[in-house]
Amino acid sequence: MKEIEFNLLTEPWVRVRRPDNTVQEVSLTDALLHAQDYVDLAGEMPTQDAAMLRLLLAVLFTVFSRVNVEGEPEPFEEEDDALARWGDLWQLGHFPEQPLRDYLEQWKDRFWLFHPTHPFWQVPGAAIGTEYNAAKLNGEMSESSNKLRLFPLYTGAGKSQLTYAQAARWLLCVNGYDDTSAKPKEKGLPSVGAGWLGKIGFIQAQGENLFETLMLNLTLLQDGQSMWGENLPCWELDVPRSAERTQILCPDNPAQLLTLQSRRLLLHRENDMVDRFYLLGGDFFQRETATAEQMTIWRNTAKKNEAAVFAPIRHDPAKQFWREFPSVFCKEKNVRQPGVVCWVKTLQRGELHILDPNRRIHFRISGMQYGDKDFFVNDSFSDSLTFQAGLLDELSCKWQERIVREINNCEKAAQCVGYLAQDIAIAAGNKNENVGGSVRAQFYFAVDQPFRLWLQKIDANQKNYDEMELCWQAQAHSIAEKLGKQMVMEAGNAALKGHRIVVDKGKKTERTILYTSPRAYNIFRAKLWEIYPKTES
Hints:
The protein is 37% helix and 17% strand. By secondary structure, it is α+β, with helices and mostly antiparallel strands.
């Protein structure tokens, strides 16, 4: 068996989607040089694509913070230099070949998947770590030896072995999203938690092709405002860090953060296939210090009347992305916007106008859902949202106010529908107090696509605020009322006849209330008119 094998710069392993919707594996070099020819990354899971995107971005940050589009050394001296560099690349429409080839050729020896001293994204010393089989590396199964999946997506050799290309992709993913099941080899070491990507609420900007996606997430200024430190990706280290569970300072440059080694990993190969791997805890830092992270949503963790302290927060997989619009896209008090959102806003500022504010902008989120203190992975999820880029501008605050108001109204309408379901259940003699939760989810499912389409129709250049808002309110009111009618029709005779409930039991004013489905529906309609009063006419 060759000691050095499978160079990621020349071997096909990055999965991309072509315009004809076919999926192809290409080398890391080709993925960058021909990014304009691919629609998007097309890994096995959205979380794998997120990890792959960050690797590609780390290369771009490193190269184009040091040289210009002609490949001449020209590091940034001030903020305007970074904006100008980004504008040159955007106008070019593709990444210049020579600067990338020169850099990748210089570091080619650090991109061998198997190497005695510098295996890519791995540490030889991890051989003492917890041993897992290939099924645990494969994120589509994430199957440990002591908890087998009942219905795995792979069986036979496909379950117990991975090709080098597969293993390379999942290597990135397990580094970013690994659970906390591995035990330390030394005593007294701190807990590192899940992999860094598993701790954050990942968000990325999405373009019309892979080149645009990479460019929109290439935040050459931190939060669209300040200069970064010098970029230092993990493959440029003279000696890979091997100490187990090491607390470090949050990196001050994107390349180091994007290639953070949350885990010490080492692949094992047998007969040209990867059959198992070894894992130790790696580098970690406190979430509250992670101000450099550009691809997460944030939450203020400070107590009441204390100074704001922001930390990355995971997405709620049961919550549609548009419901997070106020905390992600609106500049409000005690709200920290994601770095990629700030960057897009900077690019379309009036005096710069590098990015057309009239274009549609897409944002995508993805994440893992863990169980039992992140001890294992339950599921993965993703979502996206599309709207006009101009809505992010501070001049569009009136539109933002109306969007936020209608999202809040949807919350109220969902509660209203939930109360109706509870009242009907009481009328039918059902003591289940959780019946409202599933009905609220049903309402959100019904308004999900209509709200997304309404948001896409908003033109930030137009001032038809009342017209657009009334249009949506009428639609939302109709959806809620239709759902309420359906519940009443399906309630049955028992709910129609009703059920009498004693209130204020034990008091002098003890009384009873007759719950019936018609009474519940009338209360529901009255509350709905309070939420959407203008739609009555």
